[in-house]
Amino acid sequence: MDRNKLTEIIIGCAIEVHKQLGPGLLESAYEECLSFELIRAGLQIERQKPVPVVYKDIKLDCGYRIDILVEKTVVIELKSVDALAPIHEAQILTYMKFAQKEIGLLINFNVTLIKNGIRRFVY
Q1: Cα(90)–Cα(81) distance, integer angstroms
Q2: Residue 24: how many other CB atoms lie within 10 Å
Q3: What is the pLDDT of residues 43-86, one digit of tens each?
Q4: Residue ranges of the alpha helices (H) in the chain?
Q5: So where are the chain's domains?
Q6: Calpha distance 33→13 (Å, rounded)
Q7: What share of the chain is helix, strand, coil (3-state, %, to 5)?
Q8: Helix/strand number for the chain, H first, E second
Q9: First-to-last CA distance in the chain?
Q10: Model's pTM, two decimal places?
């Protein structure tokens, strides 16, 4: 599937979750509901996928996890915070790098209008 179409479907699912739940819940609730919507849309997902840290060509398991990986292509990092910070952007870019994925979506559900909480990244 074209990666633009794929991210469009993912964003549509995030919009549906936000429309139903609104802001103010824990990240885990949004992860559960978004996972449901993605599967319902016919997409293959992996939740809490381990991401090893690569240091000097050695993969180290340090406990980092991608919130949701969609179609083995798109990294989704979910937040429920007052505002996205540069560290959140650094986090998703690092996950994309270590997982060797080109596309990532950083989604903050703790916003009034969900389109203001979505950032797309290309690595």
Answers
A1: 16
A2: 9
A3: 999 999 999 998 898 888 888 999 999 999 999 999 999 999 99
A4: 3-21, 27-40, 86-99
A5: 3-122
A6: 9
A7: 40, 30, 30
A8: 3, 7
A9: 18
A10: 0.94
